[in-house]
Amino acid sequence: MKILSRNEKEKLYLDQLSLEILIGGLFDKCKNLDELEWVEEQLTDTIELISEEYREALEVEDE
User: Fold this and answer.
1) What span, in angstroms and rounded, lies between the C-alpha atoms of 63 and 59?
2) How many CB atoms lie within 10 A of CB 27?
3) Is the four-CA dihedral 36, 41, 47, 50 of positive or negative sign?
4) E strands within the chain?
5) N or C: more exposed end of the chain, with fewer CB within 10 A?
């Protein structure tokens, strides 16, 4: 199953458990709090950057 998909009503569905397992695997590599915070920062920065790119693309489509 995909982590993000559309259901039969075309609404987005997020498989929370699969996402938690995926992200948990990243944090599982951390050996201390500094590494954990670093991974968290990297994920947050990446999500913000990519979502902004998609936001801009969707705004262009809406014009």
Assistant:
1) 7
2) 12
3) negative
4) 4-6, 12-14
5) C
* Residue pointed to by tokens 């693309």: 57
Q: What angle do CA 53, 25, 55 make, to 5 degrees?
A: 10
Is 36 in contact with 50 (CB distance < 8 Å)?
no
Residue 3 and residue 11 in contact, taking contact as beta carbons nearer than 8 Å: no
pLDDT 10s per residue in the chain (63 long)? 699 999 999 999 999 999 999 999 999 999 999 999 999 999 999 999 999 999 999 998 887
Give the span between the Cα atoms of 12 and 6, in whole angstroms.
4
